[in-house]
Design a protein that fits this description.
439 residues, mainly alpha, Growth Hormone, Chain: A, 22 helices
Length: 439
């Protein structure tokens, strides 16, 4: 029992606040890449590597913490992550050697693994018919922490910063966000409760075995949703870490506050619109509404598929807008890319706990972990030295997304989708206690 009696809405609030700050501290480096590049002598390609490195630890970390949340409960795992992230953020503020700085920020970047912890925590409290909206609110408002970082941090810690400990703005930002992270860790551990009932807690805990994890990780549903998350959330991660640099470099925009503000429009769309994706998925499932007849009966899958197609189209449009040379048209299309990410992400994580109600942490860990691979790979496209300009990388990324769209079209067919949570690439069907993939 925590300090206060928890309800599903209080749990949603606690998880959302924790994840929102996790996202803020995860991408707290993005508004300050200019200052860091100047101090450490970094090239644009090296900044791209720094943006990519922010995701390196996420795949394994999310897979592990998703399973740990099922086994030990979300409050303890969330608190542990927030605590060590805060400590290493403070360390990074004092780093003088770039190698030390790089390693400490790599550890701070594991703040992103809290996503699956909160997904599991919310799923343990909400009923199936409202999971899409609840998870959409959690992840959407949480993801908007990146926009908060882009809008707030460069204004609070401006270029003329002069504080009691630091005369460098980005060092001060890393120090004080680290302090807040540690305080949030204490609050999460003191207030959080793992599940709405002891029966629910035990059902989830009993499924948290290695054999059960391998089974769920290799189901068709898990695999396709993980791939879809690469091109939605992975894309979001890459854009959060890159857009401020893109607007500043490709359009010769020297004011880092303005460039960060333009970048924040993407983060706002990708974050705050995510509940829309989950809510529509819930509505289509409740009303049994077919919007793509060739995926008849797969109501949530139809909505997810449309979201993935929209992302591909908008990524090609991002290149065209950039080649036009009109900065504001690129900002508008960037907002639409963020909208597509939010749409698909909300739809995907409406499907995850619906398909796997007693293994939501494990499956969320696989989907969320594998999904971050896009955040590692896509920044390398954006800053690739073999491209003629910075605008073409978006189209290169879009081409790599097409096989994922085709995979989702195969899995979401009615004859495959109805067994997508029991049939897979290894083992035999029969996960205990799962709902069918048919909504």
């Amino acid at each position: 029992m925590g300090l206060i009696k928890m309800t599903k809405y209080r749990t949603l609030l606690l998880a959302t606040v924790g994840f929102n700050f996790s996202f803020l501290i995860w991408f707290s480096f993005a508004p300050f890449t200019g200052g860091m590049a100047q101090e450490f002598g970094l090239t644009p390609a090296e900044i791209g590597i720094l943006a990519s490195s922010a995701i390196w630890m996420a795949p394994f970390g999310r897979i592990l913490t998703g399973w740990l949340s099922d086994k030990f409960g979300a409050p303890a795992i969330f608190a542990i992550v927030l605590a060590y992230v805060g400590v290493f953020s403070i360390f990074s503020a004092f780093a003088q050697d770039y190698s030390v700085f790089f390693v400490t920020r790599l550890i701070v970047a594991t703040a992103g693994i809290t996503f699956v912890i909160g997904i599991q925590h919310v799923a343990e409290w909400f009923e199936e018919e409202n999971l899409g909206l609840a998870e959409g609110i959690y992840a959407g408002v949480g993801n908007a922490g990146a926009a908060g970082g882009a809008l707030i941090l460069p204004r609070v810690f401006g270029q003329g910063w002069s504080g009691p400990l630091f005369s460098t703005n980005w060092r001060a930002a890393f120090f004080y966000t680290g302090i807040v992270s540690i305080l949030l860790a204490v609050a999460y551990y003191a207030l959080g409760e793992a599940a709405k009932s002891e029966a629910k807690r035990q059902a989830t805990k009993q499924n948290a075995s290695l054999k059960g994890w391998v089974h769920t990780a290799t189901r068709y549903g898990t695999v396709v949703l993980a791939a879809a998350y690469i091109m939605s959330f992975g894309l979001e991660l890459s854009m959060n870490g890159w857009l401020a640099t893109y607007y500043r470099t490709a359009f010769n925009q020297d004011n880092f506050v303005i460039a960060s503000t333009f970048a924040a429009t993407f983060s706002i769309a990708a974050g705050l619109l995510r509940p829309f994706g989950g809510y529509v998925s819930d509505v289509l499932a409740r009303k049994e509404q077919n919007i793509l007849p060739f995926f008849k009966g797969q109501y949530r899958g139809q909505w997810t598929f449309l979201g993935l197609c929209f992302i591909v189209v908008m990524m090609f449009a991002m290149t065209l807008a950039g080649l036009s040379g009109v900065l504001m048209s690129t900002v508008v299309v960037g907002f639409l890319v963020g909208t597509g990410c939010a749409w698909a992400e909300g739809a995907i994580f409406a499907q995850v706990p619906s398909m796997f109600p007693n293994s939501s942490g494990a499956v969320a860990g696989v989907v969320g972990g594998i999904g971050t691979v896009g955040g590692i790979v896509y920044p390398l496209f954006y800053s690739a030295p073999w491209l003629a300009n910075f605008h073409l990388g978006y189209s290169v990324a879009a081409v790599t997304m097409i096989p994922i769209v085709l995979l989702s079209a195969w899995v979401f067919r009615p004859e495959i989708a109805k067994v997508a949570n029991t049939a897979g690439f290894t083992g035999v069907a029969g996960e205990d206690g799962t709902a069918t993939a048919d909504d």
